[in-house]
Every structure is written in C-alpha cells, then in structure tokens.
Amino acid sequence: MDFSFTPEEERFREELRAFLAGQLPPDWADREFVGEIRPEERAELARFMNRALADKKWLAMAWPKEYGGLASPHIQQAIFTDETAYNRMPGGGGTGVSWVGPAIMQFGNEEQRKLYLPRIANGDDTWSALYTEPGSGSDLASLQTRAVRDGDEYVINGTKIFAAGAQEASMGWLAARTDPHAAKHRGISNLIVPMDAPGITVRPMESMDGGKTLNEVFFENVRVSTENLVGRENRGWYQVMTTLDFERSGVSAYSNARRNIERLVEAAKDEASLIKNNPAARYELADRWIELQVGYNVAYRVPQLQEQGLIPNHEASVSKLYGSELTQRVATTGMHLLGAASQLAPGSPYARLGGAFSQAYLEAVSATIAAGTSEVQRNIIAQRGLGLPRG
Length: 391
Ligand SMILES: Cc1cc2nc3c(=O)[nH]c(=O)nc-3n(C[C@H](O)[C@H](O)[C@H](O)COP(=O)(O)OP(=O)(O)OC[C@H]3O[C@@H](n4cnc5c(N)ncnc54)[C@H](O)[C@@H]3O)c2cc1C
What we know:
By secondary structure, the protein is α+β, with helices and mostly antiparallel strands. The protein has helices spanning 7-23, 28-33, 39-55, 74-86, 94-107, 110-121, 236-248, 252-270, 272-277, 280-307, 314-338, 356-365, 374-385, and strands at 127-130, 146-150, 153-160, 171-177, 188-194, 200-205, 214-225, 229-230. The chain has 3 domains: 7-92, Butyryl-Coa Dehydrogenase, subunit A, domain 1; 127-234, Butyryl-CoA Dehydrogenase, subunit A, domain 2; 249-385, Up-down Bundle (Butyryl-CoA Dehydrogenase, subunit A, domain 3), CATH 1.20.140.10. Helix content is 49%, strand content 13%. The model has no long low-confidence stretch (mean pLDDT 94). Bound molecules: flavin-adenine dinucleotide (FAD).
C-alpha cells in the first residue's frame, strides 16, 4: 500500500494553505486555541469563509460538477478538511457536505439532488442531523418521533436531542417513524425539514465545556410535503446507517490532535521545567506523535475507499474510534505536561497556555459519544470488520 500523497495532492495542499493564510486573520488559530473568540465573531468569519470557498467551488469539491462540485478526488476533499480543521477555520461544509449531501446523492431522486445539493455546495444552507431522542441514542432504531401521512403531507410530532448546529441551521435531516407496526428497524424514514417550518422549536443546551451548539428540537404538528421524503418510505434505518458512515470517516480529529501536540512540544521546548517536573510527559508526547501518524493513515484510507466507489463502513468506525480516543489522550497528556495549573480555565491569570488544555480536556469528553459511542464503534468493528458473532 502506498501511503504517500501524489505531487498533485501535495500541490493542492500548498495552494489551500496559501489561501487560508490569505483569508484567515493571522492570529485566528491562536485566539481560537485559548477560547478568545466570541460566537458572533466566529459566525461572521464562517459566513465570509464559506462565501470565499463557495466561489472557488471548494466546499463540496468531490461532488459532481452538476451539483456544485469540481468532481475532485475524495482524497483532495479529505486534505481540505484536514487543513481547514488544523487552522481552526470556522464554517466549511459541515453536516451538509459530509453527511446529508452524500445521502441525498445516493438515495434522493434527481429533483431533490438538483434542489438541495447546489445550495449546500454554495454555502446557502446549513443542516442539522435530527436523529437522537431522549430515549434513543445508541439504540437509534427505537426512535419515537412520528411522521404520519396525511394526503400529500407528513405530520411530524416528537422530540430530538443533541442536534448539533440546529440553533442556526436552515435545514433539518430527520429520521422519523412512519410505520409504528413494523419491526423497529423497518418503520423509519428520512425526511427533509426546513427548520423554520411552523411547529418547530429549537432550544439550545449548554454542554460541560460551556458550548451552546447542541439543541433540543421539538416538533408539534409540523407539516412537510411527501416530496421531502428521501429514498423509500420505511427504509430510512438503512439509509441512516450509511450516512453515519460518511460522518464517521472524518480526518479532523487528527488535524486537531496534530495542532495540540505541536503546541505541547513548543511549550516543552520553551520551558525546560515542564519536562523536568514531569519526565514521563516526554514519553507520552512521543507516544501521541506515533499514534497521530498511525491515525492519519487510518483516516486517509477512508477517502481511498470512496475513490474506488466503495462505501466505508467498519473502516470509518476504526478512524472515528481511534481519532476520538486519541483526542482524549492528547488532552490528558497536555494536563500531565502542564501540571496542576493546566486545570485553570481561560481567563485565569495563572492558566497555562491560556487555559487551552483545560478547555480541550472538557471538550474531549464528548468525542467518544458524538456520532456513536466507542462501545458502538467496537461492536461494528467486531461484527462487520472481524465477522465475530454478536455479544
Ligand atoms: C457533541 C455531540 C454531538 C452530537 N451531535 C448529534 C447530532 O448532530 N445529531 C444527533 O441526532 N445526535 C447527536 N449526538 C447524539 C449522539 O449520537 C448520542 O449521544 C450517542 O449516539 C449516544 O447516545 P446516548 O447519549 O443516548 O447514550 P446511550 O445510548 O444511552 O448510551 C449510554 C452508555 O451505554 C453504552 N451502550 C449503549 N448501548 C450499548 C451496546 N449495545 N453495547 C455496549 N454499550 C452500549 C454506550 O456506549 C454509553 O456508554 C451528539 C452527541 C454529542 C455528545
């Protein structure tokens, strides 16, 4: 297996780096690192970046040209995600590009592709995935939100939770039960829901790291056209499983780990007492660096599969599992290296590295829960990757 990038891929990475250096404020990544950015400032820059990226058709570059892409190789799209995440760029294609678009391309009809895909590629719509419910997370097939057919409309009632980005999304990608009598995996459908439809209420939830990007979403007699059904009615479960594979394939966990390990190495070089006080942190950093190289190879295997027309499955779970657990290990290594003061939050005069690692440590907790927990990923790898019987 060849692990190197082609000259063309390297050229694209250089072009992208130069573009980002020209567009992002020079101190952006540093200010993001220490939590100095206000949400409004981030949202404004996200809009600006999305405009600039859409003009270059880079937001969804791997998509076919007729849907707003450049038909670029999937590896190139992964390089794009890698570099934009490393530079902590706000915006980018998000759920629309990495998750909903590929699902519409695969399961939608031609009208839906023509209607929704160019709007994602152009940065006009942002999407939120509406799957999880208060009683249905890992066991997603038990979801209770109902979509009842009434003429040429569906009437939706129920509650979703942990919907990332729903507070600002224009569109929702919903999984709802359309046949309550079928076996639980066989009665679910995917519907497209405009988030401003009457009857939808979005309530932000504060997470333990202080973020307010997760939401509860309440549906009360929300009506959408039957034209918003994507794929076949009651086949939604199988479609959801495929779209989760798209989401889990992301390289960005490794890009963030790369940035954080580099910060720690810089700090250790600048201040000799850090290693002197915590000699074991030297070995930990070496381990994290090795794990990062392994992880990158795992992550880039996913777009390689996509390039061959294959849908990544357990391979995507390997990347997600390893990347999210590496995120946590890097944060822990940061706490060990920086010592007791690493626990101080951004803003504290005695905080180390601006308090960034106390924040990174809190944020890292959810990495092994979002998009399916580590236990769920291990189940997938055991069953579908290794062919082991169910536990
Ligand atoms: C940051 C973040 C972003 C998210 N974004 C979204 C989003 O945009 N849209 C959306 O719909 N959802 C989103 N989620 C929800 C996420 O998908 C669920 O939290 C996740 O699937 C786990 O479900 P749960 O929280 O109900 O935990 P539970 O399913 O109740 O799990 C509790 C514990 O039991 C374990 N467990 C459960 N079943 C098994 C099993 N069969 N074998 C072994 N162990 C098991 C789990 O691993 C976990 O440790 C997000 C969550 C987070 C934290």
